[in-house]
Amino acid sequence: MYHRPVLLEESLDGLSIQEGGTYIDLTYGGGGHSAGILERLGKGRLIAFDQDPEAEDQALKDKRLLFIRGNFRYAKNYLRFHGIKTIDGALADLGVSSHQFDVAERGFSFRYESEMDMRMNQDSEVKAADILKNYSEGELRDLFRRYGEVKNASRLASVICSSRQIQKLDTTTGFLEAIVECIPEKNRQKYLARVFQALRIEVNQEMESLKEMMEGVSGYMRKGSRFVVITYHSLEDRIVKNYFRSGNMDGVLKKDFYGNVESPFKPVNRNVILPGAEELEQNPRARSAKLRIAEKTD
């Protein structure tokens, strides 16, 4: 494994794996969660998804595992293609793997000199550099505000649009030099993390993919099966929370004639599960992780 799995035992316990069942790991990554599922699965079946070719290269050799290289937003289509009728549980760890952050040429981190890439799927056409080059000032402002909650999003967008008229913004170094006047002296790391997060989300269409995935996968879950999701920022956590609570992405509760909430899920954990002190000491990147678990009710 080139990525330390976050909240491993907690997510496996939450999945409540039944020997002989059919489960899906929607974010294979380094294979840590999949390996844990297989240990508990017995003679069951595991379908794992990942659009990163490096994840496919690392895939475990196990006859119970079917690895599918593809975006999890199309999970329902892949399940249909492979003749899967129902599943007994699904797990998704929505974080970028440590390996992806640490490989400079992938462009996920502002700590390294690299191309402004950020594509999870290397076959995709749009890179972060393309967004910086082609988006209007308004579009840039909106994506930094929406996906990064960047406080000076308007100023940042204006500086980018001015800078790209005289220099290319296709490398991390060039981009950081161009926006230096926007970066606060205090909390520099946090600010840049938000900026890069916003670009990564836009490049990979992460919010749209998450919504499509959750709606598609839930249609394959049998009554009593578990949906386990680990989130890393408030935007995706809000989507997961709303869907588990109400069955829709907006969190609007629908009630029957008697006032009972109508939802295909019921949350298993009332409060989010967070990494413990020991895990945080071993893996500081897990500090923003939040685990939510829900059970299918119909």
Rg over C-alpha atoms, rounded to the nearest angstrom = 20 Å
Distance between the termini: 36 Å
| Shape verdict | globular
Low-confidence stretches: none
- Mean residue pLDDT: 91
Strand fraction: 5-15%
Largest sheet: 7 strands, mixed
Q: How would you name the oligomeric state of the polypeptide chains in this document?
A: single chain
Counted by DSSP, the helix tally is 13
Q: What is the CATH T-level topology of the largest domain?
A: Rossmann fold
Q: Could you give me the name of the CATH homologous superfamily of the largest domain?
A: Vaccinia Virus protein VP39
Residue share in helices? Answer: 40-55%
* SSE pattern: HEHEHEHEHHHHHHHEHEHE
State the secondary-structure class.
Answer: alpha/beta
Strand order of the largest sheet: 3-2-1-4-5-7-6
| Total number of domains | 2
Count the E strands: 7
- CATH architectural designation of the largest domain: 3-Layer(aba) Sandwich
Reading off the top of the CATH hierarchy, the class of the largest domain is best stated as Alpha Beta
Pfam families: Methyltransf_5
InterPro entries: RsmH, SAM-dep_MeTrfase_MraW_recog, SAM-dependent_MTases_sf
GO molecular function: rRNA (cytosine-N4-)-methyltransferase activity
GO cellular component, one term: cytoplasm
